[in-house]
Amino acid sequence: MSVNKDEIKFPLFHSYLKRFVDLTDNEWLALEEQLRVRKLPKKQHLIRQGEQAKEIFFLISGSARLYYEKDGDEKTTYFFFENNLVGDYLGCLTSQPSTINIQALEDCELMYFKYETLTKLYEQFPVYQIFGRKLAEYLFMGLDIRLAELLTLTPEERYLKFINTSIKRKILERIPQQYIASYLGITPVSLSRIRRRIATS
Amino acid sequence: MSVNKDEIKFPLFHSYLKRFVDLTDNEWLALEEQLRVRKLPKKQHLIRQGEQAKEIFFLISGSARLYYEKDGDEKTTYFFFENNLVGDYLGCLTSQPSTINIQALEDCELMYFKYETLTKLYEQFPVYQIFGRKLAEYLFMGLDIRLAELLTLTPEERYLKFINTSIKRKILERIPQQYIASYLGITPVSLSRIRRRIATS
DNA sequence: CTGATTTATTAACTTATGTAAAGAATTTTA
DNA sequence: TAAAATTCTTTACATAAGTTAATAAATCAG
């Protein structure tokens, strides 16, 4: 059995996987046949705290934010963009109710599979075991770097770093300011002041 | 070939591994023969920023802190205690010069192996591939929870949570206050005030 | 044991951020 | 296109945290 490249159903996700591991046609097809698609309109939620995360999503287009909610107060801690995985990986790993919320910032086209599908693939194909390791390593690296930035940089330094990388990725104008403030660990008012300070110097 | 339990050279590390995966005698021995021991006196460094991390350490006894240094200013972001891995995992993964410093808080007895040894074991034994995945997942989970605490809790709430868990683990009195303050993202002066606020309420 | 060093607390002052509320600007949608 | 809703900025005020320096307490080393 062979896979014609023109027939690959989810080329974006297929390329994403290939950045981690090389897959034979069979290995890819074993996952591909479990993939489903879903649309998520702006402002709708992919997951809410208290729910049990069971799926890993892949963002084909659109964007989303991850936030925690306590006493009506929301703290946005992460953004997701097209061509990346989205979901509550921690919740999948621990089988504990989710502590996070993921909400679409723009209309989203998603693709997803059950986390259980992945764990089954671990047993069936060594290559998915490698993928699982590299994925966890990748997620670890992202958090490690983010944590270091939070603890070693001032809010102003974090903002400058954020706009610098987000301009390169052309995502700045896709995220409301208030969520960026929260991501930086400050209030919208404070971010507004920082922006003015930078502008008038 | 069989391993008598009384002959296991590093029982603490062996138990640690077993929390992640089941190992046959052969699988264990392949790693055991690569293990080395090392002592690290209080205040000495296990790694300094700029150096290339190549080893994974395991703390048999003692404690250490991880800190970042910028302009003579130190920010402590993590503590290590006996029966846990220590090292610059990020540096091992990326092969980039380390951005962190790890310093002994007490005299340490360590055991270590080359990161390269682990990657070779990935190829030789599927079980180590699983270990590598579970280790990365474990590290990811720790960071994910820590990041959420930093972004959603106030310094005072973080301190209360910290003493609560550290009293259970009997580690509070082993860490100088100034490093705890840094870990919480505040100055020693500020922590002192928080402590007084809590005491007089 | 004692002097020296390190660590923790306290005080005084400065500064940045949080809060609340109002107004301006922008975006949405009917 | 106009009205409504949302988002951003600004102001005023309160508060918590940073900075510096002095003192007190605890720890270390000879």
How would you describe the overall organization of this protein?
Two copies of one chain form a homodimer. Chain A is an alpha+beta fold and 201 residues long. Chain A has a single domain (5-152), classed as Jelly Rolls, CATH 2.60.120. Helix content of chain A is 46%, strand content 23%. The first copy, chain A, has eight helices and eight strands. In chain A, the strands form two sheets. A four-stranded antiparallel sheet of chain A has the order 1-8-3-6. In chain A, strands 2-7-4-5 form a four-stranded antiparallel sheet. In chain A, a hairpin with a 2-residue loop joins strand 4 and strand 5. In chain A, helix 4 (115-124) packs across helix 5 (126-152) and helix 7 (177-184) crosses helix 8. The longest helix of chain A has 27 residues, at 126-152. The radius of gyration of chain A is 19 Å and the shape is elongated. The termini of chain A are far apart. The model of chain A has no long low-confidence stretch (mean pLDDT 93). The interface between A and B is medium-sized, with 31 and 31 residues. Chain B binds a DNA duplex (30 and 30 nucleotides) through residues 154-155, 176-178, 186-193, 195-196.
